[in-house]
UniProtKB/TrEMBL annotation:
UniProt name for this protein: Response regulator
Organism encoding this protein: Actinomadura gamaensis
Organism superkingdom: Bacteria
Pfam families: GerE, Response_reg
Domain Response regulatory: 3-119
Occurrences of domain HTH luxR-type (ranges): 134-199
Residue numbers carrying 4-aspartylphosphate: 54
PROSITE patterns per record: HTH_LUXR_2, RESPONSE_REGULATORY
Keyword field: DNA-binding, Phosphoprotein
InterPro entries from the UniProt entry: CheY-like_superfamily, Sig_transdc_resp-reg_C-effctor, Sig_transdc_resp-reg_receiver, Tscrpt_reg_LuxR_C, WalR-like
Length: 201
């Protein structure tokens, strides 16, 4: 049996996935989680063969959880299953050690087949998304620029961002200005919108 752990914040979707995968003779859902931190703990406890993670989850997102699960349970293959088929997300998922990246509108049979392929050592990526990621190019933002842009996404002032990140206000302005220029935006709000749309944040 292939032991699977599911992490999805929407209970109905998580339950449906667990039921569908449970219909397969060779798949056993051994744990479910509603958030990224819970997923990391469940993976460490159950040591599944595959961790199936959503990206958008409360607290710790699926991409962060993916890297932590790979570090805690190296034998566990990580698969990202998301509504958000963004090129930047795919790139970040691969950097986090994910073996698969699939969008949720794929048929259920394809998901089960993808799990088997991943356990066999293959990498499974939605072909349309792979093409989009190649044409989009790499994330232009440095990790620090991403952090500052994320911290300012809710409209926080320069002073608030600086205090929260233990940086000077001048340093925060420089990071924001650089990020705005790199994504080709006119202001911080537009930069956040563009970066999120690409999956860079």
């Amino acid at each position: 049996m292939i032991r699977v752990m599911l992490a999805e914040d929407q209970g109905m979707v998580r339950g449906a996935l667990a039921t569908l995968l449970g219909l397969e003779d060779d798949l056993d859902v051994v744990a479910e989680a509603a958030g990224g931190a819970e997923a990391v703990l469940a993976a460490a406890r159950e040591r599944p063969d595959v961790a199936l993670l959503d990206i958008e989850m409360p607290g710790k997102d699926g991409l962060t959880a993916a890297a932590e699960i790979r570090a805690a349970v190296p034998s566990c293959r990580v698969m990202i299953l998301t509504t958000f088929g963004r090129p930047g997300y795919l790139r970040r998922a691969m950097e986090a050690g994910a073996s698969a990246f699939l969008v949720k509108d794929s048929p259920a049979q394809e998901l089960a087949a993808a799990i088997r392929r991943v356990v066999a050592g293959e990498r499974v990526i939605d072909p349309n998304l792979a093409a989009a990621a190649l044409s989009a190019g790499p994330n232009p933002l440095s990790p620090r620029e991403r952090d500052v842009l994320t911290a300012g996404a809710d409209g926080s002032t320069i002073a608030d961002i600086a205090a929260g990140m233990h940086l000077s206000e001048g340093t925060v302005r420089n990071y924001l200005s650089s990020a705005i220029n790199k994504v080709g935006a006119r202001n911080r709000i537009e930069a956040v919108h563009t970066a999120r749309a690409q999956g860079w944040l």
